[in-house]
UniProtKB/TrEMBL annotation:
<dbReference type="InterPro" id="IPR021408">
    <property type="entry name" value="DUF3046"/>
</dbReference>
<protein>
    <recommendedName>
        <fullName>DUF3046 domain-containing protein</fullName>
    </recommendedName>
</protein>
<dbReference type="Pfam" id="PF11248">
    <property type="entry name" value="DUF3046"/>
</dbReference>
Length: 66
């Protein structure tokens, strides 16, 4: 998954303003206690980060975006 696709999906799920907050402030268990921004900066693949988002917010992410 391209990084631009990742951010587009995150904004579709949370809205533009809140997506940035989720990426910066929410620590995800699926990312070993890192935020989305930390994981991406440390080289974690975007598809891995996206899977962690889906696992953390299963009711919020529409199935078409899984």
């Amino acid at each position: 998954m391209r990084l631009t696709d990742f951010w587009e999906r995150l904004e579709q799920v949370f809205g533009a303003g809140y997506a940035a907050s989720v990426a910066e402030d929410q620590v995800l268990i699926g990312l070993d206690g890192r935020t989305i921004k930390e994981a991406l900066a440390q080289g974690v693949e975007t598809v891995t980060v996206w899977r962690a988002v889906v696992a953390t917010y299963p009711d919020r992410v529409p199935s078409r975006l899984h």
